[in-house]
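In the previous chapter we treated chains in isolation. Here, by contrast, the input contains two separate entities that must be folded as one system, with a combined length of 1280 residues.
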Amino acid sequence: MAPVPQTAKSDANVIVGVDVGGTFTDLLLLDSRPNGGVRVVKTPSTLENQAFGVLNALEETNVDISAIDAIIHGTTTTTNAVLERRLAVTGMITTRGFRDIIEVGRRTRPQAYGMYGEFQPLIPRNLRLEVRERLDAAGNIVIPLEEDDVRAAARKLLDAGCESVVVHFLHAYANPDHERRAVAILRDIWPNEYITAGHELLSEYREYERGVTAAVNASVRPILHRYLDRLQNELKGRGFRRDFLVMNGNGGMVSAPLVDRESAKTVMSGPASGVMAAAYTAKRGGFNNLITYDMGGTSTDVALVLNAIPAVSNELELEYAMPIHVPMVDVRSIGSGGGSIAYVNDAGLLKVGPRSAGAEPGPICYGRGGVEPTITDANLILGRLNPDGLLSAENAPPLDKIRALLDQRIGSPLGLNSEQAAGAIIRVANDRMAGAVRLVSLAKGHDPRDFTLFAFGGAGPLHAVALARELGIPRVLVPARPGITNALGCVVADLRHDFVRTVNQPLDQVDMDAVHDTLNEQVAEGQRLIQDETIDTEGLRILHGADMQFIGQTHLINVSLTSAETTREELQNIFETAYFERFQVDLPEIRANLVNLKTSVIGRRPEVDLGLLVDPANRSRNVEDARIATRPVWFDGEWHDTTIYSRDLLPIGKSFEGPAIIEQMDTTVVVEPDNKVDSDTDGNLLIHVKAAS
Amino acid sequence: MNELDPITLGVIQAGLQQVCDEMDLTFSRSAFSPVIAEADDRSDGIYDGETGALIAQGEGGLPVFVGTMQFSTMTLIDFIREGKALPPEEGDIYIVNDPYLGGTHLMDVRFAMPFFHDGELFSWLSNTGHWPDIGGAVPGGFSANATAVEQEGLRLPPVKLVKRGQMDPEIYAIICSNIRIADQRIGDIKAQIAALNVGARQLTKLLDRYGVKTVKAAIGEWRQRAARQMRAKIAKIPTGTYRSEAWVDSDGVIDEPLKIALAIEKKGDDLYFDFAGSSPPCRGPMNSVIATTYSSVYLAIKHIFPDVPINAGTFEPLHIKEPEGTFLYAKYPRPVSGCAAEVSQRIAEAVFAALVGPLPDIVTAAPAGSSGNFALGGFDPEKNRPYVMYQLSGGGYGGNIRQDGLTNGCSTIGISKTQPIEVLEQIYPILFEEYALREGSGGAGERRGGFGINYKVKLQRGEAQASFVMDHGRVGPQGARGGHDGAVNTVTVYRNGDAYVPKHLSKDQDIPIGVGDVVAVGTPGGGGYGDPLARAPERVLTDVRLEYYSIEQARDLFRVEILHNLSGVDEPATKTLRKAGNAQTAR
């Protein structure tokens, strides 16, 4: 690899990460100038136009906007647009005979049982037009592109009011000439830049997944573009004139002008930046293998980090039949959050979630008319949450009412008192979350004892220790500011570009020179894109990978390569090893197949001193002085007198023992009896968990 | 709290479920046959050590296996007791595919592993995988005109394929000598074994943690609760007897429809199923073995009450009278290859049709209900190799009280995805000319059926034989509560430009085709739900704008007059049409 020139411009700067979530817009400002420091802002999100929330948050920092060097933005604009189908009017031009590919899908139903299902394609049928052209699987032309068909289709789509257009041809991954030519024709006719070709985002076979990915891109592109434009204009008007970047679902950032063409990549960027922050934070503390655990009000996101690198998948589905096959941090979501409702089912069993009380009426304790017990209510009754410290409750929570409803709906049917009922809710909820963690990560053959559970989100640190105990994970790490982890992800993320190219040949027949060329071309393309950026980077990091299988299989195993100059033998060896680790199966009888070659080019950003996140002022000298109260807390079937600490007062670098509750503005940390807690200079709490018997 | 508090019970149940889910995942992810890897035509479960009763089964398993594996395990236990199979030892795995011993068809091969904990037999771990070939007259095993099971392939009684952890090379050799493309089977066999080993490892962990006594108590308790939960569901059905009919096009040999007659009596909190009046055993392969008949009833009920978990207790309130003397209780040597894929879905359709009356809020009109199996076997001169391709396809689902039916949903008994066109064209010498939504195929109704698909496949090189095992070619999936039937399945083969339609409409075997010949298939649409005249004209307008129906169909089926430029509904004309009376009925 050629040495890469460094483009660092200055050491001292002001970086802002701002993440728009469903409830709050979180902002983190890091000022590394002398007398700089940190600002943290949490303001309500303005979902109709997220820009207001972003500007409000910036205003609250009281920092001169013209002094900011970079703003990195995580936005849910595209995710929400797809989920709510608030999309730009989009047309598709496709191979004759195949306009229904993105509607008929791959013959599925949303659930294994129940003959129900509904699916609304992103582009309605009357806006999907066919043209004469056809390639075969090798990329040979079977029917030449009829250029006049493209022109006619374009005019028809424009007449129908389309703003954005997709060109999606069969086998374009094998030969993109027809798609390119169609795009060139469109450029003369289409009044704007919103033209997406299927092969550009994803050069992999599978016409449905590639078509949907392209359709997502095309239909969110004008929306993201307008939003970013408006926000940047507002910022400019307020004096901002430096770099504005946007987070992608792969956990990297790209500058705003580049993000537009590949808008689909911004989907799911919020959860991805949380995982990036987790990997970054834990690595500084020396923990490289993590399970990240982000529990919020309605859902829980988990992800796996190996060797400080978040696992990335390019086979995620945003919802039923909505695959977005671009590389994204492999975050799995389940419907367990603080607002998840507990109930006793027909069989007399306690179930928790996935139905949620949401924000309205919310848990009983919000006092907005909720009558169904939730996880949050249970935590309150068990003394884990401070009744006076609830962010979302307007008045003091009606504890008697919660107890009565717990008795009535959970306790009586199960023969439990209200504490036991609350304890049972927590146990069942934890069990469900543990199952999800196991299946998506540990079931892949990893030993939980090698991992640290990284807990964040409003409710993550409440449940993390119990979850770790259940899973056999020995440590829990709670960062200094668990509630703004996504915003921190924006600040610490690197620039990142991912490339995938399909090979799909038996390994023993692959032209290894072509493999090296492909990987090197991917590196060169990434370097070019990153060098065009103006934000500071400190050199490049290149990751090569491959998707492999045994000949005859359809599922893929993802392996990492040591360099672009990899050998046939290395590919064979790492594949066989990975396969054995996953399935405990050797298959000397069968040859390997090389399916995809992948490269990620990462422009590394300067290290951020997370110690800045810890406010040294007001810290008490010893742990005892950080105690703010004592109250009974229910652990393992009985009440324990438990010390309550203030996180902001806890001294840095000191240890203490559980049971304890640690309260801070954006979360509550539960430490069980027999746990030991260390704190480090970045302000992290490291909880040593007593393993389950 | 005592040992069996409801919470521990729930945790153990979730734990057992997870053991099965992990077995399912391992099996699919490491399998070679696309039928297993992509189509998930497999299932894994845990069965009682002494009785074989179902303890837990993977939620991602093929629905048609929900019942059969329990019967298969029970039969194996009987065989061991009677000395017809060797007694189990630690590390053994039995293999069996005999349809009459608690199976489906020969291609569904069951593996059963005795699971020991502290030296005692605790349970059986078992799985079923659909092998892409098991020998017999035609590649893939779906011989549309077989008249005896011997023509359908290799039949294995329960024998130990793995003995104390070592694969028996002799039995393996017998298998390999009797099936096509045997060189890849070792991959699937190892995947099937790997899944059982993963299950054993996880189940050991669970037992170590909670103890045998507690887990056994939980299993017993859980079984009772599942039965109770099912009875609570059944209680919502008004007492009475509900009748229905469903039709299989033909058996593939004699061109006459086969009738399924079903009476479901609801008495107390139980359901009694009686298939009396159904057609007698048939000559061709559309017979159903008893385990498959039972399983089809179970899976239909599970589709209706999806939140009841699966274990032996779930099915206790369901009483099925043995349908002696009908094609739903096939005995040796009746051919049975069509039972798992097609007959099972007609049985489920009969259950839906009987219960949509008393449960109109839950049950849907009939779904397409065919696996749409199109097999193409031939020789590719360019790659110099023989091949067997399967194209499975979906169809429309039935309309229901909440929504229109889903378009191109997968079969009632399956949960699989189809293979991408771009993958099929890479592997086989074919070119698709079309793969599209089948316009007009959804049965009209207040909530219309979902649409089937049309596809056309052209042979590019060499010669090949096309075979079809499909259904609903004669009558479409049933509409409900005044809704029309969905469109029938169609098969047309264009040879040298001449159209050939199979005599049995949806079934045929070994039709020779050459370069440039085209196979065209239209899959069934779902049945409509409710009177089409009650469908809001605006919805009909949308359907016409999306080209789901033509203006003429809107007029004929829904009695809605759409303006010719699609700008809206001609309301006076629609009023007149709708007043004039009933829409044209499809049947």
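Chain A touches chain B through 70 residues (CB under 8 Å). Residues 207-237 of chain A form the longest helix (31 residues). Compare these points with the single-chain example from earlier in the chapter.
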